[in-house]
Amino acid sequence: MSNTDFALAVEDLTVSFDGFKAIDNLTLYVDKNELRVIIGPNGAGKTTLLDLICGKTKASGGSIKFKNEELTRLDEHIRVRKGIGRKFQTPSIYENLSVFQNLEVSYPTGRSVVGALAFKCTDEVTARVQVVAEEIGLAEVLDKEAGLLSHGQKQWLEIGMLLMQDPELLMLDEPIAGMSARERELTAELLKRICKNRSVIVIEHDMEFVKQIAHKVTVMHQGKILAEGSMETVQADPKVIDVYLGH
Ligand code: ADP
Ligand code: MG
After folding, report:
1. How confident is the chain (247 residues) per 10-residue block, as mean pLDDT?
2. CA distances from residue 92 to 6, 126, 202 in whole angstroms, order as listed
3. Quick one: which of 19, 55, 88, 154 is 20 to 30 A from 173 by CA?
4. Residue ID of nearest Cα to ligand 1 atom 21
């Protein structure tokens, strides 16, 4: 397989914080339309890895290629435009705006000549909001104030805000934390749907949830990859049981 076949190619990536290597010579490939789950103990470097891919943190060494284009030195907002979406642990929705408005304001500008003039074709935006609202299960509550949504619905809205940009890589950090059992089920279905058109990287701790969604699992420990493969393979790996699953 050549590098061009991967959506994301992270090679020999390293970041040091005052000499401490939070990510240590890490190599990871993610396919198009793959749903990859990253697990590992607290402090393993999972969130830092997403920070490096989205550009929030700059690497000390190594390379990050997205569709075979080097990203390592590009700013965060340029990476967004290239198709990388990142959801942080705490939702950042506009509580005082409606669900519709939250999605509407997330519609990207600057993609087309029309967009470059900061003009949004209303019909086009409304149609896109409708599609995304259906996808995240909020089509019935478009007029509701976002602050009044349940915790799970807020998380889905934020995923929807990222989907408005139609990212080719979507990264989610612990998306089901604090969700009810039913909300977790719906989130699993949502993630399985959205990875049909893009690659998705999810950091998660809930192994039942991971089992439901993962195509492949990467286990991180001390800034490195400890194991990688199918859920069955990593679950049976003595190293993984020792540092993570055994606890
Ligand atoms: P995880 O998400 O796997 O729990 P993190 O990526 O948040 O782990 O953290 C990995 C390690 O890097 C931790 O020891 C953390 O304290 C450290 N770290 C993360 N970000 C910074 C930073 N900006 N400055 C210094 N240390 C950091
Ligand atoms: Mg984390």
Report:
1. 76 96 97 97 97 96 96 93 88 92 86 51 88 97 97 95 96 94 96 95 95 97 97 94 85
2. 30, 22, 18
3. 19
4. 17
